[in-house]
Design goal:
The chain has eight helices and four strands, in the order αααααβαβαβαβ. It has 224 residues and is an alpha/beta fold. It is globular. Bound molecules: pyridoxal-5'-phosphate. Pyridoxal-5'-phosphate binds next to α5.
């Protein structure tokens, strides 16, 4: 008897984690490997972060918090968004999670009904289509090749939108390509979305601070 749900059986294994595992196995055998798979820093967690975590445990900061995160944390996130990104949010608009993967998955599960389409420019981070499939949605892949610097154009977005489109996932700076959308390019995408109010933008900006092309730009600045 196979007790595992169809939902889980339909998912593909993360190619990134397969590669990472392979690299760990080869390293264990003494092979000199440069692991370019998982997006993990090659330095240890800074001491002040380690100390703060230990101090929190020592101070018994170990009980349930509000589901959306403590008010102090949500206020600190609002301060960061205002200071670094010029974006104004209030703590009640912030939901904390255990990382970007959970945040994106939560957003998809909260938005996508069976049969809803989610537009994903390719190359994409491997988990996006799997999350959409888990929500019984349909990933709609838009090819953005090297000739367009791996970025989806406004025309491509417009052409991919249907009545069933629920969201588009934008990842800038991008995993896996490193491409970064400029403010102008994001504005062009936002202008298309403004014409299609039923389509949400899910913006994965996890690599905001690993960018070498100047100031980080978020599509959230074009909210309306
Ligand atoms: C584009 C992108 N989004 C999200 C994640 C997952 O982030 P987290 O480890 O915070 O869950 C990764 C990790 O590889 C990623 O590359």
């Amino acid at each position: 008897m196979n007790g595992i749900s169809n939902r889980v059986m339909a998912l593909s294994e993360s190619a990134t984690l397969v590669m990472s595992q392979k690299s760990a196995e080869l390293k264990a055998k003494g092979v000199d490997v440069i692991n370019l798979s998982v997006g993990e820093p090659d330095f240890a967690t800074p001491n002040h972060i380690k100390e703060a975590a230990k101090e929190a445990i020592d101070n018994n900061f170990t009980f349930y918090t509000p589901a959306s995160g403590t008010l102090d944390l949500r206020k600190a996130i609002c301060t960061k968004l205002e200071r670094e990104n010029g974006l104004t949010y209030t703590p009640d608009q912030i939901v904390c999670s255990n990382g970007a993967k959970q945040s994106i998955c939560n957003a998809i599960l909260a938005l996508v009904n069976k049969g809803d389409e989610v537009i994903e420019p390719a190359p994409y981070w491997v988990s996006y289509p799997e999350m959409v499939k888990m929500a019984e949605g349909v990933p709609v892949i838009v090819n953005a090749g090297i000739e367009q610097d791996f970025k989806m154009t406004a025309q491509q977005l417009e052409a991919a939108i249907t009545e069933k489109t629920k969201a588009v996932i934008i990842c800038s700076p991008s995993n896996p390509t490193g491409s970064v959308y400029s403010q102008t390019e994001l504005k062009e995408l936002a202008d298309v979305l403004a014409k299609h109010k039923h389509v949400y933008a899910i913006s994965d900006e996890i690599y905001e601070h690993i960018s070498y092309v100047g100031k980080h730009e978020s599509i959230a600045q074009f909210e309306e």
